[in-house]
Specification:
4 copies of one chain form a homotetramer. Chain A is of the alpha+beta class and 297 residues long. Chain A is built from 6 helices and 17 strands. In chain A, a hairpin with a 2-residue loop joins β8 and β9. Chains in contact: A-B, A-C, A-D, B-C, B-D, C-D. The interface between A and B is large, with 82 and 82 residues.
Amino acid sequence: MEINGVQIEDTYAEGFPIKVARVLITAISQRWAMEAAREATGFGTSVIMCPAEAGIECTVPANETPDGRPGVYIQICNMGYSKLEGSLLARMGQCVLTAPTTAIFNGLPEAEKQFDTGFKLGFFGDGYQCDLDYCGRKACRIPLMEGDFMAEHTIGAVDGIAGGNFYIEGQNQAASLTAAEVAVDEIRRQRGTITPFPGGVVASGSKVGSEKYKFMKATSNLNFCPSLREDGTCTLPAGVTSVYEIVINGIDRASIENSMRAGIKAACTVPGILRISAGNFGGKLGPHHFHLHELLG
Amino acid sequence: MEINGVQIEDTYAEGFPIKVARVLITAISQRWAMEAAREATGFGTSVIMCPAEAGIECTVPANETPDGRPGVYIQICNMGYSKLEGSLLARMGQCVLTAPTTAIFNGLPEAEKQFDTGFKLGFFGDGYQCDLDYCGRKACRIPLMEGDFMAEHTIGAVDGIAGGNFYIEGQNQAASLTAAEVAVDEIRRQRGTITPFPGGVVASGSKVGSEKYKFMKATSNLNFCPSLREDGTCTLPAGVTSVYEIVINGIDRASIENSMRAGIKAACTVPGILRISAGNFGGKLGPHHFHLHELLG
Amino acid sequence: MEINGVQIEDTYAEGFPIKVARVLITAISQRWAMEAAREATGFGTSVIMCPAEAGIECTVPANETPDGRPGVYIQICNMGYSKLEGSLLARMGQCVLTAPTTAIFNGLPEAEKQFDTGFKLGFFGDGYQCDLDYCGRKACRIPLMEGDFMAEHTIGAVDGIAGGNFYIEGQNQAASLTAAEVAVDEIRRQRGTITPFPGGVVASGSKVGSEKYKFMKATSNLNFCPSLREDGTCTLPAGVTSVYEIVINGIDRASIENSMRAGIKAACTVPGILRISAGNFGGKLGPHHFHLHELLG
Amino acid sequence: MEINGVQIEDTYAEGFPIKVARVLITAISQRWAMEAAREATGFGTSVIMCPAEAGIECTVPANETPDGRPGVYIQICNMGYSKLEGSLLARMGQCVLTAPTTAIFNGLPEAEKQFDTGFKLGFFGDGYQCDLDYCGRKACRIPLMEGDFMAEHTIGAVDGIAGGNFYIEGQNQAASLTAAEVAVDEIRRQRGTITPFPGGVVASGSKVGSEKYKFMKATSNLNFCPSLREDGTCTLPAGVTSVYEIVINGIDRASIENSMRAGIKAACTVPGILRISAGNFGGKLGPHHFHLHELLG
């Protein structure tokens, strides 16, 4: 299969189950909603050594938010609901309540699982917090030095999927990276998914475990490392000198499929891209398989 | 004391000791160095509930970095050297090694304390990492899917200071926030300091502990909350309806003084700012006191 | 009438007829499409002393453009079709053909009026240009040092409207400016309109002609200048110290109405905004009147 | 000669004399100073069909400007002083006076040639403008709807140089463009020069005149067009598929040399760049020759 002359390998991405909370952050302006979102989702690339996986889903215009202000949807992900609740509370309390002009709303109001994160944030008010109806939502108002912070009482979460992915294999770093940037820009316009790595891009695609060091949970995916060609470790097609991976988490399978499709098509418009592939571990990592040819067929 | 018609209160900021590691991240472009820096310093506003305090110090041009590429200095801070080493390794491994095209260099090569973070990152290479001299530094080369990652073997750290601060008290949120933005932009041009909160700004200045909830380590600084005027809790000057705090960490006292001075002067150019103050806790929090009138005299 | 506690004055904006060409610029990435768009629409605030009025309409995702790359719609406006054709050719030739990786497509393919701008750009190829079908459009391919430039043969234009507007009157500059920024961000998400002034905002709302200098076509709208209160020249409500105008051009009346509505609602979410008004000249300027109460009713 | 493995061709850039005015724009924040600068320097790539050449020189911190606010230096260039004066007045009046919160200061106060641009802008005040000493400069205060605009009375200009340049020849568009971006970022940190093309980059390097069309002042530099290899027109080294040119104007020879050096060195750090060259016309265009090997030796 080819798109725009770029070969699409007949392989699949392998994802695994993760719990996903979704929050809508609004602020006085798009820029400040984004600052809060960035801080709240930082140090959140992989649960291997980060306290959570987290990322920015998309921005929304003022007319689509409860308080009529510009907004950003973010997702916080963790391996179980208990860990997720802790991550959510810490990140909302330390990175959004502290951020200028923000408010938070439930991004999954219809989910079965609901955390009372907004209620708990209220204790920061030291007794001066109060409940109120705010833009049709049950919320907590907390007096701050900047004015009042509004937090919807509950934040919903679902059984989502982590590790949707594809590889962008190019003639050189700049080509692969430009294609990765274009793919991430396009995925950021879709609903339901995040790309949790820095700028949405992974430079260091990994394999599960290690051949050599028992204490390592993940190590470099050596078969895809272009500098290891001499001894035959690297099995990339000739001409490929740089590969970026786009990792996609999401609230459900359909949204990940949609974002993989959008991202791959966008990446294939960049000159110098030779092949699109994907990362899997023969089923060792997880049950969610996304076959590229099915997705793009 | 007045600057540009803005009253400078006769008070002081109270800081506390913290350990500070400093890293220079370089990348193919300024933009990508910044993406890595943002991810690596996210979820890093306050050690109260974040795993570390972290922030972006400043950008540096290509001709000031060892590898001749654009760079960003960041700082990672924690309460002891042991915790700091863990934070540093996790954030470099998960947020910079994973970021496109980056390399890391020691930002404090002359400090007595040195962590072998670069060496430890090497294990990700699963045996294919190697040591080399890179741009005059002892470094580890790790094969990645994007190409090779270079990490200087050691990263230095010093006894620094956290909690330098000042308050910007304005006629409304937009005025206070604009002044805060201007102050942070100016502080980002100085060396040696970071402003770890979202976009460099704190919306929710706090006091130590709580009057009401024993389980809370910090709660809203109610005396500076403009919405609590009616019962006399708020003691802000008349006309002030919004206050932002700029919190500054740094590698030494001089750099914090320099950044406080630069930030305050810049904030005072914004129309609608009524007073500059600072946060202290009567010595309960820490031994480092920064008197505004001395700084600005 | 009030929105969010902000008074909406019972007045109207007065626009005038203008010719509008609309171009879709695509590029390798959103960022580079935007760079080309900015250069092509610069020095284009008002036909009083600019060679054209011009602005960025909105960005579009890759899946909505003919060549599957990210895009930006821009509009170029002038007082007659002949002048407009000259403006369009010069701006496309000097600012888009010269910009990295761009292509241009007809943004009004169904308009009656069509300029052969793409065809004329072809002469830059010095004989090596050629016609082809490109993504379903009749286009000209021009060899450049970066590779090949693609320009759709024709660019459409319509009888549009200039000078749609509203005033944002606030407690201070930062409040009014923040509201202006928020309004412009929201308008930039709508189709069919541009805000041609710097960053979308006018600091210097004007009146037609001058009381004192015959050679001036427009001078400061003194009745709305907050610093002229002492002698009664300024008739603004008490408390207003800064007013920004948002000027909106568009391809038709409906799109301007839509953008005025979106912008005003967004502006009214910002604390410190006291009143929304609009600029008119008693019919001296033009026949297109936009009554605020009708729009927002 | 090689830098980082990139070949530096033994050739020279050929520039020509131009008149250059230099303005310091300050504003409430760095962001708004930049918005004004962008509008004022737009539609300003080449005097061939633009009314002027114009660009952003560099940003300056608040503590380096007369009014203690963040600033941006811009340059406006034209072929004679009379044309330059017109360009300067129109661009300052339409794009900076109209921009939120800006002030303008003389960027070349010691130049012999001085235009009374600030004085002339004053007429917009319709009799309410006045002269005053502002931050140590003789200035004109003009009442606006946003508040008061301050313009230093005079703006200086000098005999400068246009057309300093170098070519970046790479393996593909993304590599060449990334190198161009890096070069422009680095040049934007230098004083005295501008890169007037979109985002600082030229996609369409040209030759003087045309082989085929007498009415064309400049046409595509066919010898450097990678798609014209088959008939031998293109004489680029094998493997080069995309070339970007960086054009540099400046106030004097030394500043152009400095920026060429900084830009070329930065470009050579990007993987996939094969050669650096430069554009000249055998002396037909102008007397200012910049030999690459001398510059970089």
